[in-house]
Automatic annotation (TrEMBL):
GO terms for molecular function: malate dehydrogenase (decarboxylating) (NAD+) activity; metal ion binding; NAD binding; protein homodimerization activity. This is Malic enzyme. Divalent metal cations. Prefers magnesium or manganese. It comes from Mikania micrantha (bitter vine). The active site is at Y135, K206. Residues 112-292 form the Malic enzyme N-terminal domain. It is found in: Mitochondrion matrix. InterPro entries: Aminoacid_DH-like_N_sf, Malic_enzyme_CS, Malic_N_dom, Malic_N_dom_sf, Malic_NAD-bd, Malic_OxRdtase, NAD(P)-bd_dom_sf. PROSITE patterns: MALIC_ENZYMES. Heterodimer of two related subunits. Keywords: Metal-binding, Mitochondrion, NAD, Oxidoreductase, Transit peptide. Residues 302-564 form the Malic enzyme NAD-binding domain. SUPFAM superfamilies: Aminoacid dehydrogenase-like, N-terminal domain, NAD(P)-binding Rossmann-fold domains.
Length: 608
């Protein structure tokens, strides 16, 4: 399958982009039923239009006298917000980055809490500027400071104290329909470690991306924090910390509480897709294994990241001017043997096996905090064991169990150096310089850890030390790099945001009972095929974030089609698997695009 990656032309990309923009902007919004009136509506961000309520609606909903008399159009409200945002940018010029980022996050968050339609309009139209605020890197800073920043709750918070009562607590959520849930226990937030309840910022940020990229209706998303305690001593000692002030639950106690929550969620919203996010290693694989055949769920760090990384790795092969089948010959050093690193290797092995038709023994090298992992290592986790190198094989290169990163890079001369370690700067000057001897004409460096300070290296350092012919990707955004020869060193954002919204959307629209490997593979293949040959030659492996809606529509369609082919799709809404099966690829993309929500003010109709 992977041999046949269809490379699209720039013209096809442009046509689809034009279509998606047109189709995602409905001209006549359908009315929306509200069960409240007056001030209650103004205080509800789902329905609030601030000064945008037309006079007739003010009459109908009991809003007369509660707003200044002039009606301001949606466009004027948008302009007004952007003006205050731009003046905030100007007024904070020269201040430390953290202060500026938090100030930007605050102004966006206030809008989010007040008027979601306007918030998502602003977010979608300025995704390039705002993704780094609502998503990585600023979301990391927000999580670190959550207890101090807290003003209003968002999403649901379940704690170890709620055991036995989750089934009833779940009904406290005001929406009867939920499509997408992102769930965390806060135990491994980006590369920042255990942040306990403060990790709720991550599901919120991921779901913002779902709304912006996949067009999921914001009234149908649900961020969830499962607070089972924290082992972060600093937080436990912080009097302002908002989570349970006790050590994390472990073992049977822990898993039984996750079981209970999953059952309750499935009971109330059986069609919802559940994304597991930022669970620590010891529970990430275990929960995925436990629930993936039972519920429509996936683990973004393991599975979403794998698909994005793989699409990038295939782009690297193309950039070298080699056929995709040459992937089997690529030497790849993966630094970080956690959820993300292992997810990538697992998928990459599947691809090599598929290409060679044999049990794969590719030239992939895995390094964790104790160095190169070989079969000699004792006590390795069962999920790591398949990727441990045979000792004789590494010996022939002059390496051994536990060889350090620099040694491995020097001896292996990899085509790709890929970091998912969470350790900022670990690709130091020496390591990057060693990449100059790579066997590839275009060595690839992926510093995928988040947020920015945890990236294995900066973009500037990669081009400076490893050479101007490298191709570069990072989990958090960096500016493109000006090279000495007047060329631009292009920075790819190698982040699972290019896949998880499409995986969720495709699973949802197909009514999939579960998320299968072929759905995930279809997502990755779609992303890998998205870039044109011209893009690839410029070192671009992923679309710009400005086209995230377009790529998500395509990924969503690919996932949906895979679910139908695999017969895991069930009827959801007016279109069932039989009709979906008869749609062409283009029709499926069109169908997915028309299902995307777009922020416009809907007429509100009151019903008791
Ligand atoms: N760009 C993206 O889309 C994604 C990025 N990530 C990032 O990847 C990082 C890791 O995430 P997980 O795998 O879930 O974490 P994890 O905690 O499961 O794994 C971390 C791994 O790094 C290894 N490690 C720690 N120190 C090391 C060192 N000095 N040298 C070599 N290896 C070292 C550990 O031994 C462990 O194997 C995080 O920073 C996260 O933000 C995760 C998912 C997606
Ligand atoms: C991007 C992401 O999911 C992470 O860094 O954990
Ligand atoms: Mg994550």
């Amino acid at each position: 399958m992977w041999r046949r990656i269809v490379v699209r032309s720039a013209a096809v990309t442009e046509n689809i982009r034009r279509f998606s923009i047109a189709a995602s902007t409905p001209s006549m919004p359908s009315p929306c039923i509200v069960h409240k009136r007056g001030a209650d509506i103004l205080h509800d961000p789902w329905f609030n239009k601030d000064t945008g309520f037309p006079l007739t609606e003010r009459d109908r909903l009991g809003l007369r006298g509660l707003l200044p008399p002039r009606v301001i159009s949606f466009e004027q409200q948008y302009e007004r917000f952007m003006k205050s945002y731009r003046s905030l940018e100007k007024n904070t010029e020269g201040q430390p980055d953290n202060i500026v980022s938090l100030a930007k996050w605050r102004i966006l968050n206030r809008l989010h809490d007040r008027n979601e339609t306007l918030y998502y309009k602003v977010l979608i139209d300025n995704i390039q500027d705002f993704a780094p605020i609502i998503y990585t890197p600023t979301v990391g800073l927000v999580c670190q400071n959550y207890s101090g920043l807290f003003r209003r709750p968002r999403g649901m918070y379940f704690s170890a104290k709620d055991k036995g009562e989750m089934m009833s607590i779940i009904y406290n959520w005001p929406a009867s329909e939920v499509d997408m849930i992102v769930l965390t226990d806060g135990s491994r937030i980006l590369g920042l470690g255990d942040l306990g309840v403060q990790g709720i910022g991550i599901p919120i940020g991921k779901l913002d991306m779902y709304v912006a990229a996949a067009g999921i209706n914001p009234q149908r998303v649900l961020p969830i924090m499962l607070d089972v305690g924290t082992n972060n001593e600093k937080l436990l000692e912080d009097p302002l910390y908002l989570g349970l002030r006790e050590q994390r639950l472990e073992g049977e106690e822990y898993i039984s509480i996750v079981d209970e929550l999953m059952e309750a969620l499935h009971k109330r919203w059986p069609k919802a897709v559940i994304q597991f996010e930022d669970f620590q290693f010891k529970w990430a694989f275990e929960t995925l294994q436990r629930y993936r055949k039972k519920y429509c769920m996936f683990n973004d760090d393991i599975q979403g990241t794998a698909g994005v990384a793989l699409a990038g790795l295939l782009g690297v092969v193309r950039a070298q001017g080699r056929p995709i089948s040459d992937f089997v010959n690529q030497k790849i050093v993966v630094v970080g043997a956690g959820s993300a690193g292992l997810g990538v290797l697992k998928m990459a092995y599947q691809v090599v096996s598929g290409m060679t038709g044999t049990t794969a023994n590719p030239q992939f090298y895995l390094i964790d905090k104790n160095g190169l992992i070989t079969k000699e290592r004792s006590g390795v986790d069962p999920s790591v064991a398949p990727f441990a190198k045979v000792t004789d094989e590494v010996k022939s290169l002059g390496l051994r169990e536990g060889s350090d990163l620099l040694e491995v890079v020097k001896k292996v001369k990899p085509h790709v150096l890929l970091g998912l370690s969470g350790v900022g700067g670990i690709f130091n000057e020496q390591v990057l310089k060693a990449m100059r001897d790579s066997n590839s004409p275009k060595p690839a460096i992926f510093a995928m850890s988040n947020p920015t300070d945890n990236a294995e290296c900066t973009a500037a350092d990669a081009f400076k030390h490893a050479g101007e012919n490298v191709v570069f990707g990072s989990g958090s955004p960096f500016e493109n790099v000006e090279l000495e020869n007047g060329k631009i060193g292009y920075v790819n954002q190698a982040n699972n945001m290019y896949l998880f919204p499409g995986i969720g959307l495709g699973a949802l629209l197909s009514g999939a009972q579960i998320v299968t490997d072929s759905m995930l593979q279809a997502a990755s293949e779609c992303l890998a095929s998205y870039m044109t040959e011209e893009d690839i030659q410029k070192g671009k492996f992923y679309p710009s974030i400005g086209s995230i809606r377009d790529i998500t529509a395509e990924v969503g369609a690919a996932v949906l089609r895979a679910a139908v082919v695999e017969e895991v799709a069930e009827r959801r809404g007016e279109v069932g698997p039989n009709e979906l099966a008869h749609m062409s690829k283009e029709e499926t993309v069109e169908y997915v695009t028309t299902k995307m929500w777009y922020p416009v003010y809907s007429p509100l109709v009151h019903e008791k």
